Amino acid sequence: MEIKKIDRNQRDTAIQLVSAVFMQFEAPDYSVEGVETFKRTTIYNNDFLDSLNMYGAYESETLLGVIATRNKGNHIALFFVDGKHHRQGIGKKLFQIVLENSTAKEITVNSSPYAVEVYHRLGFVDIAPEEKTNEIRYIPMVYSKVQ
Fold it and tell me: What sequence ranges are listed for the domain N-acetyltransferase (predicted)?
């Protein structure tokens, strides 16, 4: 498996994976309005997508997972692994590239309820109870690089 930066030419494939995984695993926990908000503000929002540093996990030419950051690599904005490849270490390898490129001592994420345990296994801790903004449910979390 190879982790490499996703450029604008490869972004459509990455967003297709993000959308498919979101709909399968996360959308069932959201209201219809929350799903539409996620689509509108994230996967169909070119300004948002242009602000991200995006990396993919590839097996040959097949994209297995995506992680994307903003704020100089200090906030995880997207983190999705194809369901057929969960619990195979792909997420951990994607997170490693974030650690290598982050410029701060802490990395933040607003985790979906579905992904909280994944982030806990990576070393994140909750910093607030579940919140909801525009029908998007999330748990604010932080990872301290100095432990």
Answer: 1-146
